[in-house]
Amino acid sequence: MTPKIPHRRRRRLIALFAVAALVGYVARPAVFLTLVVWRDPPARAPLPTVTTGPVDDVSGLETAEVVEVVVVPRGTDEAVAAIRALLARAARAGLGVSIAGSRHSMGGQSLAAGGLVLDMTQHDTLSFDEATSSLRVGAGATWSEVLVFLDPLGLSVAVMQSNDSFTVGGSLSVNCHGWQHGRPPVASTVRRMRVVLADGRLVECSRSVEPELFSLVLGGYGLFGVILDAELDVVPNERYRHTATLLASEALGPEYLARAEDPEVGLAIGRLSVDPESFLDESILRVLVRESPGEPLPALAPTSKRGLRRAIFRGSVGSDYGKELRWALERRFATWASGTATRNAELSEPVTVYANRSPDRTELLFEAFVPHAALDAYRRAIKPLLEASPCDLLNITVRDVRTDETTFLRYADRDMFSLVMLFHLERTAAADAELAQLTRGLIDEALALGGRYYLPYRRHATHAQFEAAYPMSSAFFAAKRRYDPDERFQNALYRTYGH
């Protein structure tokens, strides 16, 4: 006969087993994340500013030998003089000129081998015009500098990327978008710009003055002139309350659009699961709702939680368990989401929080755009492609982008959802070729649904895919040669698709 355990002892044993189970449940992720932090290389320095020799962008795959890198000074008159002098020198020597900011493009869009490079990062002037309620910003200013400048004024950025490390000039050149739902890309927020053309003329353009040039320079990848500065719309800084909803992925699009109609929603972004157990089948919609209007707002300050967020994200690299853990924690966030933050605080996050630090590996983005109604069809179409690929997919976010009526080389020719995919791979030609094969499949599926793909990333698309995604490209390149008959402004994107 089995001896009977006294009631009090039985309760103690149950409690002990519960504690042991809890410790075991917590111990594995704690040990896993500790090892992630231990193995994480030290933070890498920003891309160096060099004067000559090999130059690269953030991909680490676009090394180009250039004649010289010329840093444009901060002052407006001095900047114009420096740009004109470089253009004159380039004309005499028959050299191409490319324009660089923080170089976060990934396919040589800011580089051209054998030419001169204008480094705009020092031209970061900022001023606010109270009469017009607009921001005048030098092309080399980063969005982080813009947010710090606007925050004491109670103002914020209308449209920008989801990270603040990029220069304004670079963002205008690629016509960026972010998680400002219900809005067209950033070009819609530009009131006017000053641009230095290939012949050295300083031209102001807007929707009413030089409107064609305005539409070509925005989203024009530096092929028409040098953006000196721009006047941008701003919006009030606000306090937001975090909310998040766990969804079956087929419901993400309808729920996203329904929430986007709520005037109290300030920002919204979706994320698809990359956990192997729920791969692309589950999603989370994160929505920030306006709260406590009129109350004083806290000053912009760095968050204290970036280290933990980095560890959780980096743990998903090459690890099914890491992806499972990250999604489990995000699911909990969907249930427990709470707390408030200002708009500026939400937008103030550098790419370094999550960025790869390994010198022999890289992380590359691909982005597709599909019409609102086609989101779930695209998700279902790309799922087998992603599952079959050896490329390590770390993240997919979903964002709402409305019709672009400003730029010539537009990707949002109707209301779209964007799907931003981040891949981790070895920094080798072979790994890049594997990603190229996957990318072409992802592009084909987007094109079949009336979609597009984004141009600031790897030049993996075939010429036929490029022309199908951008049917106006022939007219765009013809206009480039009309404004720049000597083809002074060059980059790898133009050299690949422009002839």
Task: Provide an overview of this structure.
The chain is 34% helix and 23% strand. By secondary structure, it is an alpha+beta fold. The protein has three domains: 1-39; 53-236 and 474-497, Uridine Diphospho-n-acetylenolpyruvylglucosamine Reductase, domain 3 (2-Layer Sandwich); 239-462, Alpha-Beta Plaits (2-Layer Sandwich), CATH 3.30.70. The strands form four sheets. It has an eight-stranded antiparallel β-sheet with strand order 15-12-14-13-17-18-16-19. Strands 6, 7, 8, 9, 10 and 11 form a six-stranded antiparallel β-sheet that branches. β6 and β7 form a beta hairpin. α10 runs antiparallel to α11. The relative contact order is 0.13.
CATH topology of the largest domain, anyone?
Alpha-Beta Plaits
Residue ranges: pLDDT <50 for 5 or more in a row?
Answer: 13-23
What spatial form do the alpha-carbon principal axes imply?
A: globular
> What portion of the residues fall into strands of 2 or more residues?
15-25%
Cα(first) to Cα(last) distance is 90 Å
Q: Provide the CATH top-level class of the largest domain.
A: Alpha Beta
Biggest sheet, spatial arrangement of strands: 15-12-14-13-17-18-16-19
Task: Describe the largest sheet.
Answer: 8 strands, antiparallel
Mean pLDDT: 92
What is the architecture of the largest domain at the second tier of CATH? 2-Layer Sandwich
Q: Structural class, from secondary structure content?
A: alpha+beta
Structural domains: how many:
3
Radius of gyration: 24 Å
Number of helices: 14
Residues in helix, %: 25-40%
How many beta strands in the DSSP annotation? Answer: 19
